[in-house]
Each structure stands twice: as structure tokens, then as C-alpha cells.
Amino acid sequence: MDLLRLSITKWNDFNYREDRKNYSWFKFSNDYFTDDKTLGWSLYARIVFIYLLCVRSKSDSDVFLVNVSKISFCFQITPEESLKYIEELETHAVLRRHHAGMKPASRHVEKRRKEKKREDAAGFPFDEIFREYPKRKGDHGKKRAFERLKKTITSEADFERVKRAAKNYRGYCVAEKIEGTAFVKQFATWVGVWEEWENQLGFGMKTPKTYTADDLKAINEGLVP
């Protein structure tokens, strides 16, 4: 559907004139693209959010209509991509989609919203670590991993150490040409041994070139570094 009914979660943060419902400009921070709250967003999600703020500023209602086709035309992306970025913004809880005769938010959006709530409670953006982690064929055990990280990471220094270790392990997987395969450890398994990768660059390290079923089992159980 081309038209969506949306609302900005904290519009008052952007609305300088509370005595007016709409205005020709709105309050905006010059730290927007470097703020910790938005650094984890995709580039297009950040740009689309600015577009939505502009549309909202022209409306005299908290719930406003957005034409998906116009977003697609403005940024030269497909309608499907436009919806994807709007869904991403929903997961970050900066806007809400109001479903009048429309399907409710997808399971993916609801799941990500709950994950983000858990991350915020822990105080660290665990998704930043997960984005550094190598892609894998099969389940990552992400929920279990995040629960474990909440107990492991107690400071900003810890967070940066784990993030660096994830980069190192990804470098290893790329060098060994196993990224995207089932031979990459489950994220939940790796979180238990992340310290082993903190000071390893990941390149030139030896690993079996011919993998057996036993190799795969050992990797997934964290028995092989």
C-alpha cells in the first residue's frame, strides 16, 4: 500500500513551537549523524527519518500520511526498500506505524523491538558487535549470546574488547574462506571464548582445510578456536 499512517514518537523534541501544530521548520541537532543513538542505523534509515520529520512538520496532526512512492522517488530506491527502512526506524522506537485496515507490524519488527529493549536495559548496543561478527549458514543463537554478553560486558572498555575480538574472528574466517558457511561458530558459542580472539589478527592461522562432520561439531561446541 502506497499510503502509510505514521507518528513520530517524540515529536515534541523537534517541535520548537508547542503553541503551533505545524511550522515551516523544526528543531534538529547538528550531532544527528554522529550521535550514539543513530550510529547503529543504516544510512538510508537516517535519511528517510529526516524526510519523515519534514513531512510531519507540515501536518497539524500527530498521525500523518506518508506516500511510500514519493520516498522511493526522492531517494531512488524501491518501495520495498522504503518500507524496510521505515520498519527499521520502528525497531529503533522513533516512529510508530498506525494500522488502519493494514497488516500489523511484521514479526521481524516486533522481534527486533524486543531485542533493542533488552539491549537498552543492558546499556550497550550489542548489535554493533554482532555486525562485526562473520556471517554464518544456520542459526547464531543471538538471543542466548546477548543474554551472555549482558553478564560479560560491564564497562565501555569490555564492550570495545569484545567488538575488536569479533573483528579478529571475522578476519580469520575471511582468510580461511569459511565465512557464510556452517563452519563459522555460532555467535552464542563464540561469546564464551571471545577472549581467545582479542589479540589475534585472524590471518595466516592454521586450520584444517578438509572439514569433517566431527570438525563441524567441534567448531559449533567451541572446542576449536
What would you report as the Rg, rounded to the nearest angstrom? 21 Å
- Proportion of helical residues: 40-55%
Structural class: mainly alpha
Major sheet = 3 strands, antiparallel
The 3D shape can be described as elongated
Counting H and I runs of at least 4 residues, what is the number of helices?
A: 9
Which percent range describes the beta-strand content? 5-15%
Give the strand order of the largest sheet, numbering strands 1, 2, ... along the chain. Answer: 2-1-3
Please tally the β strands and state the result. 3
Distance between the termini: 49 Å
pLDDT averaged over residues: 79
Feature tags:
single chain; 225 residues; mainly alpha; 3-stranded antiparallel β-sheet
Molecular structure report:
It is a single chain. This protein is mainly alpha-helical. The chain is 45% helix and 6% strand. The protein is built from 9 helices and 3 strands, in the order E-H-E-H-H-E-H-H-H-H-H-H. The protein has helices at residues 43-57, 68-75, 79-91, 107-122, 126-132, 142-152, 156-175, 187-190, 213-220; strands spanning 3-8, 64-67, 95-98. It has a 3-stranded antiparallel sheet with strand order 2-1-3. The radius of gyration is 21 Å and the shape is elongated. The protein starts with a strand and ends in a 5-residue tail after the last helix. The model is unreliable at 101-105 and 202-211 (pLDDT under 50).
